[in-house]
Amino acid sequence: METVSENRAFGGVQGVYRHASTACGCDMTFAVYLPPEAEDGPVPCLWYLSGLTCTHENAMTKAGAQGFAADYGLALVFPDTSPRGPGVADDEAYDLGQGAGFYVDATEAPWAPHFRMESYVTEELAQLVAAEFPVDPGRFGITGHSMGGHGALTLAMRHPERYASLSALAPIAHPAGSDWGQKQLGAYLGANASVWAEHDAALLLRSRGWHGEILVDQGSDDQFIDLLQPEALAAALAETRTPHMMRIQPGYDHSYFFVASVIEEHIAWHAARL
Amino acid sequence: METVSENRAFGGVQGVYRHASTACGCDMTFAVYLPPEAEDGPVPCLWYLSGLTCTHENAMTKAGAQGFAADYGLALVFPDTSPRGPGVADDEAYDLGQGAGFYVDATEAPWAPHFRMESYVTEELAQLVAAEFPVDPGRFGITGHSMGGHGALTLAMRHPERYASLSALAPIAHPAGSDWGQKQLGAYLGANASVWAEHDAALLLRSRGWHGEILVDQGSDDQFIDLLQPEALAAALAETRTPHMMRIQPGYDHSYFFVASVIEEHIAWHAARL
């Protein structure tokens, strides 16, 4: 693992690191924020998964999360959203290929050799972060925005032993029933809709459920709300009687201004449960 | 004035606007954050001037200021750092021309026709913001980072009737004695060093002084600290016995991670004095 940069932030350290990923078969870049408390021993750790077109950098610079992570004594991890590089398959569309990994392990050509973001996030990077940083792997939480909200919800429900707390911001809630999902799940996993159901938050909640509580925030004026389908997740949360807090926040859109406006409450939510 | 975008943020509105500037002779873009309190009437307003290479956007997206502005009931204004456009003079260097206006009114060719950032910020944009937004022009404060810290300090001391409170983050403190300043003040204002002294924070503090208190924050590990020369400002503050708080913060560098780490204290500082 190589250090790309480290900056003092809120008494802790915001770092960017690069490593050769076995899961993705390419170099991967990620960011870790360590709060001041990490100097005294392992701290709980919140994983933040980003949305379409993002890298490790967007949330690191625009979510305003580090100050609250310092207040609550949480580390933050910002993975990239896909494998990258000249040898990695890509597509001209912004919502497929590089920058759009959808947090699945692809089985279809040309994606299968590198697009293994589920294994990367939940196994390889989780182990690397636990080995290299003063974080407690028994106290990992996960959240994310948009495609990353989809990733947080589905990875948590598929790997409940890995994550102790869960929230999502404007998640793609029902990709198997949306143009943000059918295209990508079809490309990465093939045409079988029963496979897609294993990577769809609203459907997974009904099939596997979640062992804890879930916090979901969604802006009422989100320009992509018809693609996100929060109503599918709300119905599944209510009908499965899963302990949760689901909010439609009036006036907010899909931007990082929304993420920044609610990130403190998400960090506090995870801190209270880790 | 034209609205480029408006996003709900922390219960208020983060807007970006464009207008035809008389002072600069080109279209100028700026950002305004209005806190929820602005719905009930005029609020005090903090002007944030940005550094080299920045536009209105950098601090708007990376400083994490809006949440604290909402908490303290302050509006924020983020001007651009120079005139821009194909008809505007420029230089290949990152630190001269577009993106590097240095908050002066240029008198020299080829800069004089457009590079009038002092008049633009202190007069034209101040009047526009006061006319178009629910802010109280009697309660304007000013701050900024790097070149923008230079701008905040020098514009406040040159226009004390305009600004009631003042702070700076990692400011270019003594441009008349630094490679970050001599080149630009020479290009924009000519070779006469006595003219430069009228745009140098450390020198202005000795010649004109400031009617209030000044807060200055500087990172100890700032990679540009030799260009910024905080020691010149510290000496001037102490020797003129100007009420102030000057801090060298251990471990911080010149990045927005430093700005974000201390912005709450700057907003609180201005709120208490506006």
Characterise the protein shown here.
- Chains A, B: Serine hydrolase involved in the detoxification of formaldehyde.
- Chains A, B: Pfam families: Esterase.
- Chains A, B: Its EC number is 3.1.2.12.
- The structure is a homodimer of 274-residue chains.
- Chain A has 274 residues and is an alpha/beta fold.
- Chain A has a single domain, classed as Alpha/Beta hydrolase fold, catalytic domain (Rossmann fold, 3-Layer(aba) Sandwich).
- Helix content of chain A is 35%, strand content 24%.
- Chain A has ten helices and nine strands.
- Chain A has a nine-stranded mixed beta sheet, with helices on both faces.
- In chain A, helix 7 (201-207) runs parallel beside helix 9.
- The first copy, chain A, is globular, with a radius of gyration of 17 Å.
- Chain A starts with a strand and ends with a helix.
- Chain A binds chain B through residues 7-11, 14, 61-62, 64, 66-67, 219, 221, 251-253, 255-258, 260-261, 264, and chain B through 7-11, 14, 61-62, 64, 66-67, 219, 221, 251-253, 255-258, 260-261, 264.
Can I get a quick summary?
Chains A, B: This is S-formylglutathione hydrolase. The structure is a homodimer of 274-residue chains. Chain A has 274 residues and is α/β, with parallel strands linked by helices.
User: How do the strands of the widest beta sheet of chain A line up side by side?
Assistant: 1-2-3-5-4-6-7-8-9
Classification by helices and strands of chain A: alpha/beta
Query: What is the CATH topology classification name of chain A?
Result: Rossmann fold
Quaternary structure type: homodimer
Can you count the beta strands of chain A?
9
Number of domains of chain A: 1
